[in-house]
Amino acid sequence: xxxxxxxxxxxxxxxxxxxxxxxxxxxxxxxxxxxxxxxxxxxxxxxxxxxxxxxxxxxxxxxxxxxxxxxxxxxxxxxxxxxxxxxxxxxxxxxxxxxxxxxxxxxxxxxxxxxxxxxxxxxxxxxxxxxxxxxxxxxxxxxxxxxxxx
Length: 150
Prior knowledge:
Elements: E1 3-8, H1 14-30, E2 36-43, H2 45-56, E3 64-68, E4 81-89, H3 90-100, H4 104-119, H5 127-148
Parallel strand pairs: 1-2, 2-4
Antiparallel strand pairs: 3-4
């Protein structure tokens, strides 16, 4: 059993949020994850800036922040995996979608899979890790788009 919650802390259109939920469910199945729990929280720039400053000592906005509970040394193993929380700034996603010349939907899905992979321990600090993470992100995004349009 998986417990995945999408929380919209903004007044943003729920159609995008509904699509985000479908994509996250698809990603979890693709990655063959079972007995997991995590949240995706959609916030505005002000909230993600505050979170970034408080928890990462970075005094600026960002697009996505993932808090991976399994990285915490005090983590207690249970019969299910409590992966953590993914925060996505809808305002930064809108700006980046425009900047990268693609849809807001595509940007939100990218940020969600990026955050989920961080919860699972993927990182992009080293070149080979980054390559592996980017390839997996693109594979899942492309398979979702193909499935959605078939």
